[in-house]
Design brief:
Layout (H helix, E strand, L loop, with lengths): L8 H20 L10 H18 L11 H25 L1 H13 L5 E3 L6 E3 H16 L2 H15 L9 H42 L5 H44 L1
Antiparallel strand pairs: 1-2
Helix pairs in contact: 1-2, 1-3, 2-6, 3-7, 3-8, 4-5, 4-7, 4-8, 5-8, 6-8, 7-8
């Protein structure tokens, strides 16, 4: 117990213990873990969802706080919550990979700004993709699915038996490869067209070496890239939905095996 001798003390310790997994998931997950979301909001959401967990599952926290077993249980709860959010974060990294490929071919590799999701500098095109993926994630109720999986995770991984096994850790590592595959497929329509344009420009440079390719190639790549993005974005939006579903499915497999 906390050591205050109050009647509310066991319930308060149980709520704090439950909030560890929920808070770790929110800190690592996209949307909830964005820099623009205040810490107060995240703590309040974790407490509200903690009440739901306590109402749906009989959670029995460790009896003593300052013991090795309790510290290991807290570490296990934080590990499970961080893993749930991290798997979704892996899927959300796919648009950044696609933006690096497309932006480099279009000549927009130098255009970068502060990403509101993580507070770091990222390509401008990557921010556009990231915002679209976030909106699609919210449109299919991905945030509600994440909360539902966090609550149901106490059935599959109850308190005291929440360590991730080697198979689950291996699944997280394998899903990391999906980021590069999804980013490649997302950038494929526009990237292939820009690659074809670069081949044509290279052939022209061999046929007419006197031409200034910097004055011709860069505006052409930029114009063709913007036009290709406008044409291919409906298909790219459909594939972003696939990325969202695959990320949620990977999170569910992490919880239920």
């Amino acid at each position: 117990m906390l050591g205050f001798g109050l009647a509310i003390e066991p319930q308060l310790w149980a709520l704090i213990f439950v909030m560890i997994r929920v808070g770790a998931a929110f800190a690592a997950a996209p949307v909830f873990g964005a820099v623009g979301v205040p810490v107060t909001v995240r703590v309040t959401l974790a407490g509200a969802i903690g009440f739901l967990v306590l109402a749906a599952h009989p959670v029995t926290p460790p009896a003593q706080i300052f013991t090795v077993a309790t510290m290991l249980a807290i570490a296990a709860e934080a590990l499970v919550g961080a893993a749930l959010g991290f798997v979704l974060q892996i899927g959300f990294a796919a648009p950044m990979v696609a933006a690096e490929m497309i932006g480099g071919s279009m000549g927009l590799g130098f255009a970068s700004a502060i990403d509101p999701q993580n507070g770091k500098s990222s390509p401008a095109l990557g921010q556009f993709f990231s915002v679209m993926l976030t909106l699609l994630f919210l449109s299919v109720d991905g945030h509600l699915m994440l909360v539902d999986m966090i609550v149901r995770s106490y059935d599959a991984m109850p308190v005291g038996n929440a360590w991730l096994g080697a198979d689950r850790l291996r699944a997280i590592a394998y899903f990391g490869g999906y980021t590069f595959l999804a980013g490649l497929l997302l950038a494929l329509p526009v990237g292939f067209l820009l690659l074809s344009l670069n081949i044509v420009v290279g052939m022209i440079s061999r046929a007419a070496p006197a031409l200034n390719l910097f004055a011709i190639g860069l505006p052409a790549s930029l114009a063709v890239g913007v036009l290709a993005l406008a044409i291919a974005f409906p298909a790219m939006g459909d594939y972003m939905l696939v990325i969202v579903r695959e990320s949620l499915a990977a999170t569910e497999r992490l919880v239920f095996g």
